[in-house]
Amino acid sequence: MQLSFIIAAIALMAPLVSACSPDQDCCWSSRQGCRNQHHTRKGDCDDPNYVLDYCENFGVSCGADCCAISTGWGRGCP
């Protein structure tokens, strides 16, 4: 019972911590890259908080879902 509670709590927190942000030297390559990582077609990636973290705002582009702002290369998404 406790294990299932812990797993459920982690699952609820995952969307809160798995975001690409400039603080992590990370930006979303595009809306589709954001959607790929969040496994959604809903408007989550159209939210202004996500749009601010799109690479185009930092003059960066790469072929991955997430890009490193410092190098412009693809990187693993947090």
Summarize the topology.
Elements: H1 2-17, E1 27-28, H2 31-38, H3 48-51, E2 66-67, E3 74-75
Antiparallel strand pairs: 1-2, 2-3
Structure, described:
There is one protein chain. By secondary structure, the protein is mainly alpha-helical. It has one domain (19-75). Helices cover 36% and strands 8% of the residues. The protein has helices spanning 2-17, 31-38, 48-51; strands at residues 27-28, 66-67, 74-75. It has a three-stranded antiparallel sheet. The protein starts with a helix and ends with a strand. The model is unreliable at 5-17 (pLDDT under 50). Keywords: Signal.
Question: How do you describe this structure in short?
Answer:
With 78 residues, the protein is mainly α.
Structural class: mainly alpha
- The total beta strand count reads 3
How can the largest sheet be summarized? 3 strands, antiparallel
Could you list the spans in which at least 5 consecutive residues all have pLDDT below 50?
5-17
User: Which outline best applies?
Assistant: globular
Taking all residues together, what is the mean pLDDT? 83
Query: Rounded to an integer, what's the Rg over CA atoms?
Result: 14 Å
- Report helical residue fraction: 25-40%
**Strand order across the largest sheet:** 1-2-3
Give the count of structural domains.
Answer: 1
Query: Given the structure, what is the number of helices?
Result: 3
**Share of β-strand residues:** 5-15%
Order of helices and strands: HEHHEE
The N- to C-terminal Cα distance equals 29 Å
Signal peptide: 1-19
Keywords: Signal
